[in-house]
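Consortium newsletter contribution from the modelling node. Members have asked for a concrete example of what our holo predictions look like. Here is one, prepared for the nicotinamide-adenine-dinucleotide complex that several groups have been discussing at recent meetings.
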Amino acid sequence: MKQIDHFIDGAFVASARRFDKRSPLTNAVIASVAEAGRAEVDAAVGAARAALVGPWGKLAVAERVDLLYGVANEINRRFDEFLEAESADTGKPMSLARHIDIPRGAENFKIFADVVKNVPTEFFEMATPDGRGALNYATRSPIGVVAVVCPWNLPLLLMTWKVGPALACGNTVVVKPSEETPQTATLLGEVMNAVGVPKGVYNVVHGFGPDSAGAFLTGHSGVDAITFTGETRSGAAIMKAAAEGARPVSLEMGGKNAAIVFADCDFDAAIEGTLRSVFANCGQVCLGTERVYVERPLFDRFVAALKAGAEKLKLGRPEDAATGLGPLISLEHRDKVLSYYRKAVAEGATVVTGGAAASMPGELGAGAWVQPTIWTGLADDAAVCREEIFGPCCHVAPFDTEEEVVRRANDNVYGLAASVWTTNLARAHRVAGRIEVGLVWVNSWFLRDLRTPFGGAKQSGIGREGGVHSLEFYTELKNVCIKL
Ligand code: NAD
Ligand code: 6OD
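And here is the predicted structure:
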């Protein structure tokens, strides 16, 4: 069994307290993970502070950026190790992690190295009454020690999405990976050492959220800023912790994303895109679709094709190239998802397909498997139409007018993402403008240039990251005015 330890000041550090990491595939224990108490968190924050004022803070931008390119290259060199670790922790199909999670884990270091290298700040020449003038310019400094609190659904991708820009901007970090996915963050420690990133720049502490490593870290007075991805409820708790010391937060949180399918859409593209957005990563993608609205003339045909697509998905092991759907992350999460499967029936849904746990052969029988599920027939105020489930499921409802569907899609506390399927350009612009979310796709899903802003509206988030928008969070701008 693997031993997963913290990574503090360039070294792997154990704790007396440990917890078991179980495989989502079989529920067997696959690793023993160190659980940080206040002492380990304190050591990690102290190491990050020392590196900030020491070696990392003294590097020129070009040297820092070179090291981050090195990190990206080393992840790619050790690609298979990252792939194995990620799929062991999550059970996700390797075909998915090979194309999304691991390449993006490397790319996140390159993209932000490029952004930091190329972004200018303002510079103005001013006239002054004495005729000698002044130079007024802005500089960017690191914000300090950044706490990075991560979820389990896309562990390496979402962690490096924060660590990449934080380090590129000259900060140091203490990462708290999800208790469900400790491996790739730890492996990244080896990478940091191998490429010569100074010790203390990148630290990892393992543990849980409340009353554990997550709360100790976000409540630590040595942390200057907190960036978080996860559930809205956890984000709200972290905001409270950040209020102590008035520290900035960047929060990427939950969603209940709608797909809106107009009768004039490219039907095959809409089906393919909706299948991906509902079922990719077993529905455990914050941007995934859980509400589908289909214009009435297309409704029956659309539901039939979505059902056929869902029923073709093969549940299986990560390494099997035919696998389309892995397990959920844990039995605990499966209990939550199945409670919504039951609620849907209790509220009167028609179960188009699925609706239950999936029975799997052999040792997989003990894993966190559920059937891909589609419902129809519920009112918009049903729990499964309002609350984030984070499983491979969606409710499909008909609509009659553009006005109506925009109102219904917006009638939710979340506002992360939406996808609109139409060939009418004017309608695409109109609807995109009126949907209350941070990200709208038209005739696509999960397609995005990493230089663009990413984040949620309403209870889905606070702030935007991506490209130069990350710089706004991870740097402090200083205004310097020099009278000549
Ligand atoms: P979670 O909120 O349970 O946990 C996320 C992280 O926060 C974990 O590391 C956890 O240990 C820690 N944590 C939890 N409570 C904490 C507290 N009080 N103080 C400090 N740390 C705490 O989320 P999850 O179950 O890991 O991930 C799934 C959720 O994440 C879903 O709601 C999903 O929508 C959301 N998510 C959002 C985005 C986005 O970009 N908006 C991306 C991925 C996932
Ligand atoms: O692609 C990204 O950068 C990103 N933050 C994706 C988030 C996916 C949520 O599960």
